[in-house]
Records
---
Amino acid sequence: MSTPRFILIDDDRLVLTFCRMLIKNALGTVGVKAFASPNEGLEYLRSEFSNHDDQAPVLLLLDINMPDMNGWEFLEHYEMLDDGIKNKISIFILSSSVDDRDKERASSNKLVVDYLEKPITKATILRIGMNAKS
């Protein structure tokens, strides 16, 4: 199995920094791209994965509550991407929301693998990193 790559989308730059450090601490040398703007994250997915045959699994950690585009709106835009892109990426909601409706919505969304609560832990990173689809 190849080492997973991570994409982080969260408007909180401190969360992005913490997650990047935690991922590298847990898994060693792995690729981590971080975006404070969901729009920039979507554009990266379009450009990076449209003609890319890399077999490494890609894990996307997505925040829900963001000002310009929330996580649910991101997923609506993501749904319109080419299947070739979507098949390469596993999406995890990473949120501090305590609203059970968010958890239910995530679990019923076919694009979302799991709902993870902030702050993310090393154990969670190891669990999702080791179970990443390749």
---
Amino acid sequence: MKILVVEDEEDIQRLARMSLAHAGQWQVLLANDGEECLTMARREQPDVILLDYIMPKLDGFRTCQQLKADPVTRHIPVIFLSASVQEHERERGLALGAIGYLLKPFDPLQLPQQILDLLAQAGSASPVSS
């Protein structure tokens, strides 16, 4: 499974990459901001995007909105990743088309299964298992 992790904090990028690589059969791509995400999503066509809310240049909400408006990327499931526990932010992300919302700090041992669970709930499950 190919996953695009969009996160501007290097420590979180590194932790997510190690967590997903440890689960096996995950190809992890990294983007530092929303603009880079849009370019990579169009080019790489990942199976899922793990998207931070707060980033430079283009925040997660606007990035998700643009992903879902683009016929080339609208089919890609988006999961928000945020340290914010504000219910209105979660609702806004889901209203923009995200399939789920995960909180930071995340448990690196649970992250792959959490992603698979959200994909399964959304009906986008991949045959790849953790």
---
Amino acid sequence: MAILKVIEVLSNSNTSWEDATKKAVKEASKTVKNIRSVYVKEQSAVVKDGEVQEFRVNIKLTFEVR
């Protein structure tokens, strides 16, 4: 039986929500091992002068505790 834990992680990107998600997983994997899945809980964007400047995600990251 595996024990899984879920944490929330916030990330941003100037490119896309997908890039923000990838950056969050990459950064979290530096200290969190055995990541199993990621769930995008919320997406938002910062708009300035009618243009999207920054994409933001709030994700739930699931990993196995060993």
---
Amino acid sequence: MLSKELLEILACPVCKGDLNYEKDKDRLVCEKCGVYYEIKEGIPVLLPDSGKPLEEGNS
């Protein structure tokens, strides 16, 4: 689980917008870009090319 302090400072690497933490899927979502970023071993993977389309992660 990510700390509240970390969640407050994280931003989308592409648009610099807010990221929403989906605890149940353990991922960060950028609604503006329509992508999500995985969290691996407690570390958000926030490289610009690592975003995955939201449709892909809904299954």
